[in-house]
Amino acid sequence: MTDERDREDGVPAPGEGDPPRAGARGPRPDAGGHPRGGPVAPPTTAPDDVEPLPEPPPEEVRKAQAERLLRVWAAPEGWRYWSAVNNTEVGVWYTAVAFVFFLFAGGLALLMRAQLALPGNDLVSAELYNQAFTVHGSVMMFLFAIPVFEAIAVTLMPQMLGARDLPFPRLAAFGFWCFLLGGIFLCGSILFGAAPRGGWFMYPPLTSAYQPGLGPDIWLLGFSFIEVAAIASAVELIVGALKCRPPGMRINLLPLYAWYTLVAAAMIVFAFPPLMAGSLLLEVERAFDWPFFDAARGGDPILWQHLFWLFGHPEVYIIFLPSIALVAMIVPTFARRPMVGYSWVVLAAVGTGFISFGLWVHHMYTTGLPGISLGIFSAASAAVAIPTTIQFLCFFATLLGGRVVHSVPMLWVLGSFAIFVFGGLTGVMVALAPFDFQAHDSFFVVGHFHYVLVGGAVFPIIAGLYYFFPIVSGKLLSDRLGTLGFWLSFVGFNVAFLPMHLAGMRGMPRRVFTFPADIGLETLNLVSTIGAFVLAAGVAVVAWDVVRPKRKEPYAPRNPWGAGTLEWVQEMPGRPWGIRSIPEIDGRYPLWEQPNFLRDIDEGRFYLPDAEEGYRETIVTSVIDAEPEQCQRLPGPSFVPMISAFTLGGFFILGTYHLWSLAIASLVVATGVILHWLWTSTALVPEKERKDVGLGRTLPLYVSGPSSVGWWGMLITMLAIMTAYVCLVFGYFFFWTVHEEFPPAHAAGPGVLWPATGGGLILAAWALVVLARRRIDRFGPGTFAGLLGLAAGLALAGGAALLAGPWTTALDPTRHAYDAIVWLLVIWTDVIVLLGLITLGYAGARRLRGRMTARYDIDIGNVALYWHFVALTAAVTSLVIAGFPLVSS
Amino acid sequence: MIGRSASGRELPESRESLWLLVAAPLVWTAHFLLAYCTAAIWCAKAAGPDAPLGPVRLAVAGYTVVALVLIAWVGREGWKRHSLGRAEVPHDEDTPEDRHRFLGFATLLLAGLSGVAVVYEALAAVFVETCW
């Protein structure tokens, strides 16, 4: 990475000769936003680059503009405050709730450490201990690490991209309410002694045959529900990073944080569905006795391990990448220079995103898989260390090449480097199968992954907390408390977790609630426990720093750290509009590089300085070059996301208690609410075609197809659903590999006739939908709706024909895993078709009511896109269940 | 102007695509899955515990050659884009040319990483001679 051109000449030397003021830890920006004391080299731009208005609009015009913007973007007040959907509210709630869950899970950790302080201790029972480690791990992963990434990203991404908000604010709010409800449900269960106790990876048959209580159901359904929230946020973040950048922010100027977020969110789309598929199989086994994981009836528990870790390993990187992304924003600010090796960091983010999907079997080295398989996964596990190392070398090079300013965020970053690198090295050790055979399921592994996750996620997140806190609250956190909290946490962490490696090597197993005296483990455990409480003290100091009243403290100066990236244009305290006018970006560090940048933004000299029509608006741009494509209107506050989340949550929670009729009723209500949401606030026909967004540019208010954000949202959602489906198909073939005879001799179905008929009818329905979309300009509303009605009829018949396959051939899903997986593939396909019928009804109704026309055709574009996936699903299901038995016999 | 160089020549990715960027890692993914599935199915279906991996190793060698050729091609495309005109990193100017060079450079780097990772995978088949 040293071949990157040294940019010292082009970078101001902020802080030189400018003693920091009290309260401001960085160099103070001047009125134009530039750090003082250094030359500013304006970046090179394309010849046709847009410049801000040479003169500001008159004072009274600016005032009127600001008033209109404030009115449009104001947060609702009183009890209606909770209907807010803007990132400035939702992002903050999201982050706060994630931290509450973090503290809760941390409390459980202290309980476990207290239990393990002494040999033979009886502070907690084995039963409670099992619940404690299961809930600790599950909450840290599902309710803290993943949600806090999404929360931070939802809060910061619009600021970093100079967008007023991300494209689907209500979807983000929906995700938050799902997360809150699901989280409370899960955490609450331990208070009633009903929590899951099978470990955070829930291996059957422990969690199927041996745990009849509600605990595993709470885990399976609760987390499936929360995964809906995660995928919703991922959709929002991917579309945000690709389509909502400020004009001029070409792909080579994208903030590194956005690169990491893009990669992590894309990983969520492909990593979470395997877990959803696995959870579906396990829950169906528990609820209806379908033997997917029951070896006696042709199932195999190893299938669960594959599906779980196909999620679980990328999950680690989904946590790590966005956290290290915060570091990638902090390091250049305090090194006072642009990141060294920007392209190399992008390589690391993208490369890690891919390779991390090839590691999952390294959690399964001791399950008896073929040595060649272990070798392949061991090789990938070693390979992933390469991009990880590259990005750290870039960070070090940036720090070495800059003039590092001391600060609390940097302190946490340096601590994270030390801890993570250590965890990474033990990671390379356990990536090697022979070593792992020895260390597997011991405290060595516990030590290893806490080093990785605390160093790779918790410390960077706290660094980010100290760094970005002014953006959220307008005030700085305390240097003194931050430093104290750091040293307590850093020392406490190492004292707690370093001895665990040794304890593990001496034979201490994970997840055993006590240990005998005299086997050399007492001192190590006692030291670990003391360290854990010191670490907790450090976290408590940080928590106090965040919540302590700050009313009397002054607001932070604007851009308090002297950063160069766009989020720091924010006023202190922030305004609900996010950014006064949306700038034209010319470089990676516009605050350092673009002259008069703050002034031009504040005076409304850039795009969209006004909200003339009284709508919330932001600019949608093209993926590669951030060329403005559309002025996107965004929905305002609404309780609909909350009600949708709670009714959908009702389905999962009532289902946990097997109250199926109430659960289905709740699902029906949720469907109705979501349809209302779509009907009233999406694909609205604007009052005019185009709008003047300033600087001589007019943009369309309505675009459809791949230019529209809704199309991208649909595509990403469908990729996630398709991934879950592929995992079920994988299950079918997995069963084939473990059986001598597959299909088993007893199974005579599903035959060829019914699956082929079903698949054919559904494909015919798909063809009609495609025809309707292509020829929408030729058909009147009646014909159009009739065509969709015909498609719906064909699809309905096709779905019924698919069911007829296993039905007429008497496949019994409780008899054998083969019968069960065939039934499940058919039912999955039918559920997709059923949802497709709803989309057809919706599109037909929109057309009949004039809410969709040949010109305003977003809805049918999205419906047709959905039906491409329906067709693919139906075709694959038919081919697999009807065709494979022919081939394999 | 967008998608064209200053001389008016149309740049290859003017039709807006990140596909070339992820092409090399996608080749790695395909190679990885093929190698893993071939080995897993062979060991589950065809071979006993001590059965030789011969055909699997041959297959992995074939996949590896194809994968490396594809990755090399992607890397070369990346290099060409990276070297358009003035080939100086860090490619951080607000011009279509620099965006073009950046995408090329990142493509090249990802091709390098993917190539190394493919060789890593292939080494497993070099050193392991039986299923178990």
Set out the fold topology.
The complex is a heterodimer of chains A (889) and B (132).
Chain A: H1 59-73, H2 87-116, H3 126-160, H4 169-191, H5 215-243, H6 256-288, H7 301-335, H8 342-355, H9 371-383, H10 385-401, H11 408-431, H12 433-439, H13 443-473, H14 479-505, H15 522-547, H16 590-593, H17 597-602, E1 616-621, E2 628-634, H18 640-656, H19 660-681, E3 690-694, E4 697-700, H20 709-738, H21 753-774, H22 781-808, H23 817-848, H24 858-888
Antiparallel strand pairs in A: 1-2, 3-4
Helix pairs in contact in A: 2-3, 2-4, 2-15, 3-4, 3-5, 3-7, 4-5, 4-18, 5-6, 5-18, 5-20, 6-7, 6-8, 6-20, 7-10, 7-13, 8-10, 11-13, 11-14, 13-14, 14-15, 18-19, 20-23, 20-24, 21-22, 21-24, 22-23, 23-24
Chain B: H1 19-46, H2 54-82, H3 96-127
Helix pairs in contact in B: 1-2, 1-3, 2-3
Please, what is the oligomeric state? heterodimer
Biggest interface, which chains? Answer: A-B, 56 and 57 residues
Query: What's the helical proportion of residues of chain B?
Result: 55-70%
Question: Which geometry of chain A do the CA atoms define?
Answer: globular
How many domain units of chain B? 1
CATH arch. level architecture of the domain at 87-547 in chain A: Up-down Bundle
CATH superfamily of the domain at 87-547 in chain A: Cytochrome c oxidase-like, subunit I domain
CATH class categorisation of the domain at 87-547 in chain A: Mainly Alpha
Outline the low-pLDDT stretches of chain A. Answer: 1-40
Q: What is the H/E order of chain A?
A: HHHHHHHHHHHHHHHHHEEHHEEHHHHH
Low-confidence spans of chain B: 1-8
Shape of chain B: rod-shaped
Along the chain, the helix and strand elements of chain B come as HHH
Figure out the total of helices of chain B: 3
Major beta sheet of chain B, specifics? none
Rg of chain A is 28 Å
Work out the helicity level of chain A: 55-70%
- What does the average pLDDT of chain A come to? 90
Please tally the β strands of chain A and state the result: 4
Helix tally of chain A?
Answer: 24
